[in-house]
Each structure stands twice: as structure tokens, then as C-alpha cells.
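Issue: ligand-bound run for NAI - logging full I/O for the record.

Environment: standard queue, default settings, no custom constraints.

Inputs:
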Amino acid sequence: MKIAVFSTKPYDQEYFERYNEKSNFAFTYFETPLNHHTANLTSGYQAVCIFVNDKVDSNAIRILFKNGVRLIALRCAGYNNVDMEAAKEYGIKVVRVPAYSPEAVAEHAIALILTLNRKTHKAYNRIRESNFSLNKLIGFNLHGKTVGVIGTGKIGTAFCKISRGFGCKIIAFDKYESDEVINLGGEYKSLVDVFKESDIISLHCPLNPETKHMINEQSLSMMKNGIMIINTSRGALIDTADIIKGLANKKIGYLGIDVYEQEENLFFKDLSESIIEDDMILRLISFPNVLITSHQAYFTKEAMEEITHTTLENIRDFEKGEILKNEIA
Ligand code: NAI
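Outputs:
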């Protein structure tokens, strides 16, 4: 079976080739993302394998179908970048990796919190220049702080467990309450109460029309002054222009983001010799209390293994005509 892999980085290829022996799929690795401009590359392939910043809209799906593609295998969990209605209309199956390592993402969210709070990134740079001063490195205890968790699925629950270990009080909002979170001592509240009562808010819900720009001028106005906001979920959960205003007027004390609404033009690329044309990311970088990582929360050895195994299995199931257990219906 011929599979076109888009947005490939050296590490994707390394992991796929390491575990492909059993299946012997014919992978072609494209560095370019899949979108309606590049969809023509899929002629002669039965499947495409894509990641978070490939854009599979209805135009791309029409071209994929014409070229003979019948399977879209996402090597990630979120699928907001695929037009599911169009995929259904053309009878193209869409599979994903529903959970590769919730702990990897939850631990990264905690890393953002600890770095922002205890300023270890600044201390590291200071000490390299023999500056042993503590001025302006003061942090706060996590113990006893109220952490608001929005979305208590697999990652949100893993995040709650770690936060409990720090002695934080957990309040949460989700459309469905999780017994596991309640057993951890977490308390479900309305979204408004989570906004109002939290010292730290961590976003772990998917991006959909309901959650898009949930962090905006209005929700920020309800929050405590100096709030810490962490987003390892999807960039568009945050209205970037509003959050810049919130940082400028000091409503937001700390912002840690692993995702960014306009990330597709920036993240996963070495742009160190380029002129960055995105003024919003430049403004965000300019704040001393903002920490940005480029969608690396998932990026652990354990998660890469799981992504590779599940993706190969998803494609094998499709090839054999078996039930697709990870199909997005
Ligand atoms: P999940 O499906 O296990 O949990 C999502 C939770 O969000 C569910 O409990 C669901 O009920 C809840 N939810 C849905 N709509 C909501 C709303 N309007 N308000 C509040 N909660 C709502 O998903 P999982 O595995 O925990 O992943 C969460 C998100 O993390 C994914 O959607 C993806 O966008 C992101 N992610 C980011 C990664 C990274 O590397 N930065 C890696 C993997 C996932």
C-alpha cells in the first residue's frame, strides 16, 4: 500500500522506518504540509498520513478523492484541521491516534507552569554569565493554589493528578464530569466560576466552534489579576489579540503556550535566518512573562513510539478491511 506522509520531519521518518518492517508499507515522505495546493502530490497513493498543521479542507478532500486516496491517517489526536463533513461525503475514512501519551502533554503543561513561576530559564542564563543575583526571580508556592482545568479528558485528568501532588486545589469545567477527577478531590464548577476563582488556568479541551477563542477580553475580565494561563491544547482556544491586551494591561501575570493560532507558518521550522512577518508572535515573545514552545508537549520517546505503532496499526486495519477502531465517525 502506498502512503504519502506529509509535514515529515527527520524524527517522523526515523520512527516510521524503524517499525515498518512488519507491514512493509511504501511510505513517501513529503516535508511540505498537505493542503489544497499540495493535494495534487497524492496521485497514485491510497492513503495520506498527516499531522496537526496540515489543512484538509473540502477542496483538498476533493483532490484526494480524485487521486484515489481513501484513508486519512492522522498521527495526532486533534482533528479540527480535517473537514469531516467533506470526508464523509467522499467516503474517505479518517483515523487518528486518540491517546499517545496524555502524561507527556500534562507534564509539559507543568513544565511551563514551573518555568514561568520559578524562572529557571532566566536563572540558567544569568548563571552562565556569572550573575548569581536573585533580584526579580521571586516565584510563588504552587501548594494551596487553585488550578482551573478546562477539559478533563485524558490529558486534563493526567494534569489534575500531577497538580494534586503539588497540593493544589483543583476546580474543573467539562461537559462531562469524570469520576477520576472527583476522586482526586477535584470539584466541577461552571466555566464562569473556573474563570473567576482560579490562580492558574490550564486548557485541555478540544478546539471546536464552542471553544474557539474561549479566552478572550470578556473571559479575561472575570479572572483574578495576575492570572497564569497555560495552553497546550490548540492555539485558537485563545484570542491572541485579546491576550496581548491582557498582558499589556497586566491582567495576565504569566502566559505559557505550546500552541498558537497562527502556528502553521512558524512552528516546527527553523526560521532563525528569516524575517518573521507575524507581528503578534513577535509581540508575545517581547513579554518577559510569556513562555512559548512550538507544539512540543507531545514530543517524548514514549509518545513517538505510540504514535508510530497506532498509525501503522490503523493503516493495517484499513488495508485488511477490518474494523477501524480509531476511526473518527
Ligand atoms: P480527550 O478527548 O480525552 O479530552 C477532551 C475533554 O474536553 C473531554 O473530556 C471533553 O468532554 C472536553 N470538552 C469538550 N468540549 C468541551 C468544552 N466546550 N468545554 C470544556 N471541555 C470540553 O482529549 P485529550 O487527549 O485529553 O486531548 C485534549 C486536547 O489536547 C486535544 O483536543 C488536542 O487539541 C490537545 N493535544 C495537544 C498536544 C500537544 O502536543 N500540544 C498533543 C495531544 C493533544
